[in-house]
Amino acid sequence: MTPLDATSADAPLKIGAHEFRSRLLVGTGKYPSLDIMQRAHEASGTELVTVAIRRIHLDDPSGKTLIDYIDRTRYKILPNTAGCTTAKDAVLTAQLAREALGTDLIKLEVIGDPQTLYPDTAETIVAAKELVRDGFTVLPYIIDDPTACQRLEDAGCAAVMPLGAPIGSGLGICNPYSLAIIIERAKVPVIVDAGVGTASDASVAMELGADAVLMNTGIAAARDPVLMALAMRHAIEAGRLAYRAGRMAKRLYASASSPMSDLIVTRANQ
Amino acid sequence: MYATVNGERRELRSGATVAELLRNLKVEGPGIAVAVNERVVRSSRFDEHRLSEGDVVEIIRAVAGG
């Protein structure tokens, strides 16, 4: 018998026409250096990394850019519309990203509030419809709300990406019950996006049945991002395996693991 | 003539193409994209797309993000 591997017997993650063995999506922001980012990506085992889209600085247009630090034979690029606050801005940003990077994948992010970075659900749905019509494979960042996720699935999104907690907060999976409902109902992959602070948070998301987890700060802001990337890889794999294995039922009282008969009883108890 | 490029007002030769603007700004692809008046201009059309007075040009590339 061949040794069990975390991914070999598992179905690939399918997002639109794209397939992935890894269920960990990783960002490129906030790393102490691009060298550390590269090593963290490698340690994470990711196959899909996010980037943002911004205006070129006209006073310094040349020089090595982020894309030079991403080996595109190993990693697919998932551009985002981070920072956009209207559907219109998000659609144009996505169209520019597709032209610049040659990918139909887009992480749709339309922010409704600068302090919480919670998404603007109404604008996100408007943008999602427009981008699906334009041929994009749309992965929307959205609140952990089953109705919002349903609307985005109905709009033709290839996945839904409910948050675990606010972006960059590291608070973990704040509402596992609503995530569980989203996961149970969704017919497209559910990717928990944002809020993961440490390995156990990633495992919780995967044990709930999430298809993947997207994280940036959880790795980049760790004291050692490369070690944390490896921890996250194991956490995703462990959580996925536990989900596939099917956990035991919880019970209020103890249930002995050892036989309760044929015990050795000393004189004082006779 | 004048156009707005990445939010800055810039003087351009009348009838300048997108390719000419990129050369003048020393912006090189791959990995960049251009929109004029909120519409993407494909890179294959940079040589033929002529800019007009008052055009709003966006030139972007990928940066680090999550």
Report the major sheet of chain B.
5 strands, mixed
| Major sheet: arrangement of strands of chain A | 5-4-3-10-9
Q: Indicate the overall shape of chain B.
A: globular
Mean pLDDT of chain A: 94
Quaternary organisation of the protein chains: heterodimer
Strands across the major sheet of chain B, in which order? 2-1-5-3-4
Number of helices of chain B: 1
- Count every beta strand of chain B, where a strand is a DSSP E run of 2 or more residues: 5
Radius of gyration of chain A: 21 Å
The biggest beta sheet of chain A is recorded as:
5 strands, parallel
- Globally, the shape of chain A reads globular
Q: Element order, helices and strands of chain B?
A: EEHEEE
Characterize the structure shown.
Chain A has 270 residues and is α/β, with parallel strands linked by helices. Chain A has helices at 34-44, 87-101, 121-133, 146-154, 176-185, 199-207, 217-220, 225-245, and strands at 13-15, 18-20, 24-26, 48-55, 76-79, 105-108, 137-142, 161-162, 191-193, 212-215. In chain A, the strands form three sheets. Chain A has a five-stranded parallel β-sheet. A three-stranded parallel β-sheet of chain A has the order 6-7-8. Chain A has a two-stranded antiparallel ribbon with strand order 1-2. Chain A is globular, with a radius of gyration of 21 Å. Chain B has one helix at 18-25, and strands at residues 2-5, 8-11, 32-36, 39-41, 56-64. Chain B has a five-stranded mixed β-sheet, with no helix packed on it. The longest helix of chain B is centred in the first third of the chain and has 8 residues, at 18-25. The A-B interface holds A 27-31, 37, 50-56, 58, 61-62, 65-67, 77, 79-80, 82, 88, 92-93, 95-101, 167-168, 214-217, 220 and B 5-8, 25-28, 30-35, 38, 40, 42-43, 58-66.
Task: Label this structure with key terms.
heterodimer; A: 270 residues; alpha/beta; 8 helices; 34% helix; 15% strand; B: 66 residues; mainly beta
Write the layout of secondary structure elements.
The complex is a heterodimer of chains A (270) and B (66).
Chain A: E1 13-15, E2 18-20, E3 24-26, H1 34-44, E4 48-55, E5 76-79, H2 87-101, E6 105-108, H3 121-133, E7 137-142, H4 146-154, E8 161-162, H5 176-185, E9 191-193, H6 199-207, E10 212-215, H7 217-220, H8 225-245
Parallel strand pairs in A: 3-4, 3-10, 4-5, 6-7, 7-8, 9-10
Antiparallel strand pairs in A: 1-2
Helix pairs in contact in A: 1-8, 2-3, 4-5, 6-8
Chain B: E1 2-5, E2 8-11, H1 18-25, E3 32-36, E4 39-41, E5 56-64
Parallel strand pairs in B: 1-5
Antiparallel strand pairs in B: 1-2, 3-4, 3-5
